[in-house]
């Protein structure tokens, strides 16, 4: 193997962490919150771009992102990666 090739164990662990995060997002976040997180942090859209896409203000985008990140942080910090919020809609 190339000395610059990624370690297979590292690749596997990253994939597993990504899958865990995706599952956590599905179980904890609303559809809008999941979309906001994906647009902002995966596709690297700005809040302004998200606001235009949704037809809302940047303030609303910030609110959605803040709520999503708070839910994820609480689930990770206090619940071991489990979300108990049953008000989430798919």
Detailed description of the structure:
With 90 residues, this protein is mainly alpha-helical. 69% of the residues lie in helices and 0% in strands. It contains four helices and no strands. Helix 2 (31-42) packs across helix 4 (58-78). It is flat and about 50 Å long. The termini are far apart.
Keywords:
90 residues, flat, single chain, mainly alpha
Distance between the amino and carboxyl termini: 43 Å
H/E element string? HHHH
Main β-sheet description: none
Portion in helices: 55-70%
Number of strands: 0
Helix count? Answer: 4
Strand content: under 5%
Which stretches of 5+ consecutive residues score pLDDT under 50?
none
Please state the overall shape, judged from the principal axes of the Cα atoms: flat
What's the overall average pLDDT, rounded?
Answer: 87
Instruction: Please state the structural category.
Output: mainly alpha
């Amino acid at each position: 193997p190339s000395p610059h090739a990624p370690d297979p164990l590292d690749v596997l662990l990253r994939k597993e962490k990504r899958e865990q995060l995706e599952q956590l997002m599905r179980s904890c976040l609303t559809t809008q919150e999941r979309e906001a997180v994906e647009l902002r942090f995966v596709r690297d859209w700005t809040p302004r771009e998200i606001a235009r896409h949704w037809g809302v203000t940047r303030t609303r985008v910030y609110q959605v992102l803040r709520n999503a990140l708070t839910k994820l942080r609480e689930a990770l910090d206090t619940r071991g990666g489990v979300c108990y919020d049953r008000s989430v809609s798919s």
